[in-house]
Amino acid sequence: MNVRTLLLVCLFNFVLSAGLYAQNLFQEKIEICSKEQFCMDCGTPKATVDSFTLSGIADRINYRYNLRGGSGTITFQVLVDAAGNSCVLSHDDASHSPLTNDLMVALNTCIWKPARVDGKPVNASVNVVFTIAYGKITGRMLRMDLAELTVPDSAVVYNKLYQYHNPSLSSYSISVLTKYNSPLPDNVSQVSLMDKTDTLWYATAKGMIKYDGKFFYPINGYNSPFALTPDVSAIAMDKDNNKWLYANRNVYMYGNKGWQMFDPAQFGISKPYNIITTATGELFLPNSKGLLILRNGKFRLIDNQAILDLPSNNVHYAYYDTKGRLWIGTDKGSIMLDKKQKVKSFNGTRTPLDNVCITNVTEDEKGNLYFSMDACKKPAGDNDEEGLAVMSADGKWAHYNDKNSGMPANHINSMLYDKFEHVLWMGTDKSGLVRFDLKNGWENYHNNNSTIPGRDVYQVMQDSKGTIYAATANGLLKIVKK
User: Fold this and answer.
1) What pLDDT digit, counting tens, does each position of 226-281 carry?
2) What does the alpha-carbon distance between residue 103 and residue 76 come to, in Å, rounded to a whole number?
3) How many C-alpha atoms does 404 have within 13 Å on its Cβ side?
4) What is the pLDDT of residues 458-468, one digit of tens each?
5) Largest Cα–Cα distance of the chain, in whole Å?
6) CA distance 208 to 134
7) Chain Cα centroid distance, residue 100
8) Which of 144, 153, 287, 380 has an alpha carbon 20 to 30 Å from 258's alpha carbon atom?
9) pTM (global) more than 0.90
10) Which residue spans within 167-225 are E strands per DSSP?
11) Residue 434's beta-bridge partner residues?
12) Torsion sign over Cα 78, 26, 200, 276
């Protein structure tokens, strides 16, 4: 059953609550429970167990096990029937550890309060998550946001001319992780990062978690400076695998010595729009006053006093390419500085970068550069000035949009050059994921034609084995070549 079908079934069970069996959410299914119908986290009040009971379970586990050095989460789906009897339906621990078995026994034997619908007790499943951090385990209820179980809106493909055959789609195994089938803190992530150890840093409005492909490790008050839920709006990795974040109005760096915090005011800026690292060791913090560059603990600000041809101090993006050229995108246009500090301004030129702000740049092994762009003047509706710009290694330009190519939409959220398949992946608003094979072969995957759970793709990443990850509005997408 694909994720879209699962969401439909879950919602149907909640609304009708009759005649259909609800689904086991997590991959490790327990087959000992009664197969009666149930709704998911429904009712007023919802099914629950007293917080003191969960604390008691945690205390017994902490007494029985030495959890020092351990970290991670285990999430259980528990069926609570109308009489208050409980039975674990599924969990997410693929190792089936004795710890998980003990927790399952405890959840099956404690006292629960059933959910009520229209004043009558009903069968309902609820989720409980146990978190291991700093040598102790704690437990809490994990409530479902039933609004997220509604089927996402259909993808919007602005391109009405191109016929998408998607021949490569069958060569991938596609799976989706959500907060209902994994320990992800939330389904929506607009900021994520794959580091050099193949660990995914997944940031949401409800918390941040690390995922190494097998286990999840929450970032919380026990192992970070974030006493409150971190509101992460930018994240990057430098050449030494240090992670840089802008969260809760501060800049943070996480490395071998743990966490360090910096107040952006000490750099003379209020906040960065983004954090960008370079292969040569610089840290770029584009902001409303210019481009702040940090290197070896020192910083300098590039603005239109330092570079007279800079169209605006409101800098949104910057990138060093492999030829040592610095590309800067502002809200009034983009420029390039070559290795000799000669400035090339693109406004008024016959290039795709005329009157646009560069928002992302990536390159392939041949030296071709790929640009996503925002139009400086933003007319209502679809904007053909945006799309994908390509500058070949010999300096020739090409511009692809939804009128002259297979681009399904013009606005690009993120890009990834796939060094394994030599293709370009792009995440879009409303139009899903784009695969471009660089020879005019376009494919478009979304919730109308695949098991991708939605249409909004915010961040596309790849690990060292070639696995593609995409952070979306409806969960974490994982694409593996068969």
Assistant:
1) 877 788 899 999 999 999 999 988 999 999 889 999 888 888 888 899 999 998 88
2) 9
3) 11
4) 999 999 999 99
5) 77
6) 17
7) 28
8) 287
9) no
10) 172-177, 191-194, 200-204, 207-211, 216-219
11) 426, 444
12) negative
